[in-house]
Design a protein that fits this description.
The chain has 284 residues and is of the alpha/beta class. It contains ten helices and ten strands. Strands 1, 2, 3, 9 and 10 form a five-stranded parallel beta sheet that branches. The protein has a three-stranded parallel beta sheet with strand order 4-5-6, covered by helices on one side. It has a two-stranded antiparallel ribbon with strand order 7-8. Strand 1, helix 1 and strand 2 form a beta-alpha-beta unit. The longest helix is centred in the middle third of the chain and has 19 residues. The chain is globular and about 45 Å long. The protein starts with a strand and ends in an 8-residue tail after the last helix. The structure holds zinc ion. Zinc ion (ZN) binds next to loops.
Length: 284
């Protein structure tokens, strides 16, 4: 069973948890670290012999062209994470269409490959903005991995299916939600991010194993800043955000190595091909 491996490519100051502390107009004055961190991740992936998908912000691609070329040249998929990490449910449909097209043009120019996959910033497609899938279908995307079918303090669409579905009638677009595990009938977020860093590794191994025993691929994600223990500290951010952001950064690379060795991993566009045949139309 090959599982989907993904990296959400944004810099240390672009995370949702800091959005009220560092505004977008200050981004250009901050130290760029994402290019070096992507280089470390590419070496880690080469060492483990795995390919992955890099969901990248247009803003990052504009400023890190060498990293974008390296992602493609080393056999990985370059895909879209929007332009500047604005959550999709804050857009009007027209604004979302514009953001998608802008990011795609930058990414296709930087990587020299067609962009066919999308992940919404902070999994921000849910019951409020189902129209977002219609726009992804209109723009010809093959797949999206933008739904967290769980309740979380920052995101979540609790009614959505746990596994791949077709969100738009008459379209081939596949939505591949991030992984959840079931414990006593409750869904737990188990696809990466803070959960992977903060909880013991055994939890992730159990959760991904459970999903595979259900006969489905897991979808795992992490961020370049999570393998960067030396990143600048954002002092003014809320305590809860700081705890979540900075816990266990120095252990992350070792944990990732175990994860890459314990399961089989591949690019999200390949997972989408396999999931397409078995996914049905789902409308809430
Ligand atoms: Zn993100």
């Amino acid at each position: 069973m090959v599982n989907g491996l993904s990296v959400d490519v944004e810099d240390w100051f672009q995370v949702g948890a800091f959005e009220n502390t560092i505004s977008r107009e200050h981004w250009d004055g901050l130290e760029l670290r994402v290019g070096d961190n992507v280089a470390r991740i590419l070496d880690l992936f080469d060492g483990a012999g795995v390919k992955a998908t890099f969901f990248t912000l247009g803003w990052v691609a504009e400023r890190n062209k060498a990293a974008m070329r390296a992602i493609v040249e080393r056999g990985h998929e370059l895909a879209s994470h929007g332009y500047d990490h604005t959550r999709v449910f804050t857009f009007s449909p027209a604004e979302f269409a514009e953001d998608l097209a802008k990011a795609r043009a930058i990414l296709e120019d930087a990587g020299g490959q067609p962009i066919t996959g999308y992940r919404a910033p902070s999994f921000s497609i849910d019951a409020r903005n189902r129209w977002a899938h219609d726009i992804l279908a209109e723009q010809g995307y093959v797949y999206s991995s933008s739904v967290a079918p769980v309740v979380h303090d920052h995101y979540g669409w609790r009614e959505a299916p746990r596994f791949a579905f077709r969100p738009v009638e008459g379209s081939e677009l596949v939505e591949i939600p991030v992984t959840t595990a079931l414990l006593k009938g409750k869904r737990l977020a188990a696809g990466g991010g803070g959960f992977f860093r903060v909880l013991p590794y055994g939890f992730s191994r159990w959760a991904i194993g459970q999903v595979n025993r259900e006969g489905r691929p897991a979808v795992f994600y992490f961020h370049p800043w999570e393998v960067d223990p030396d990143q600048p500290r954002v002092a003014g951010a809320p305590l809860r955000s700081r705890i979540r952001h900075y816990t266990n950064l120095s252990k992350m690379e070792g944990k990732l190595s175990r994860l890459l060795g314990d399961f089989a991993w591949g690019r999200m566009d390949e997972i989408a091909q396999g999931e397409k045949a078995r996914s049905r139309v789902w409308s809430a």
